[in-house]
Specification:
By secondary structure, the protein is α/β, with parallel strands linked by helices. The protein contains six helices and seven strands; from the N terminus they run αββαββαβαββαα. The two termini are 29 Å apart.
Length: 138
Amino acid sequence: MTTARQNMTEGTACAGEQESVLDAARKMTDLGVGALPICGTDDKLKGMLTDRDIVVKVLGRGIDPADVKAGELSQGEAVTIGADDRAEEILRTMSSHKVRRLPVIDGSRLVGMVALADVAQALPDPQVGNLLQALSTD
């Protein structure tokens, strides 16, 4: 079975915790992604910022995204996966935390991102179906 390192997208860009949400949204647009890890000035992972966070927590409340820092939207510790964790562990983590993307960590360093589509290719069909069901229910 494959590992997170084998399934991840390397070279993941970050939104700086002091970067405006507007700048982070522009970065998402340029990269064609729906989420970015939030990284601190110490190069450590501080959380995740999703397009949904921007819409619900900023735009939907009438707040100017230029006035909000990405770090203000991080919610506690980010759910991550180890670079050498197997695909089954990615499945369990995504299912239990109901997330579709996981930052991949090697030690304390962010080395990539693994998405639902990445892990779906590495797992047998019934396991992928179970993951999709877990992500679709409350």
